[in-house]
User: Fold this.
Amino acid sequence: MRGATGEVAERYGLALRDYIVLSALDKTPGLTQAELGKSLGLDKTTLMSQLDGLERRGLVVRHSDRRDRRLRIPVITDDGEALRATVADACAAVEASVLDSFGQDQVQALRHMLFTIIGDAEDRGSCL
Assistant:
């Protein structure tokens, strides 16, 4: 699934990690860069590199946190949201085609197992 969704993201000019960052910003807005990195399991250097690239492309902007101006809050732009939504729709279609040969009960069982493995998280990620 990772390979298939990665290929979809690349068709739209995004690395899979870019798509994951945009999706996290869409699903959990208002996180500081540190909180975002922690939620995605990315170290500070990797996240900064991702955000720098997304910001150069106009897909993300960073604002100062009103509570602490030293902290930065990345925000997805309208262009970033439009691209994220397009890639999400294309990924959903790929996921549906991959799971098409399974019955609905099998798909539900797979989803249940994946939820059990990853726990009760706010952002369960792609393929769920």
User: Anything to note?
Assistant: Strands lie at 60-64, 72-76. The two ends are 11 Å apart (CA to CA).
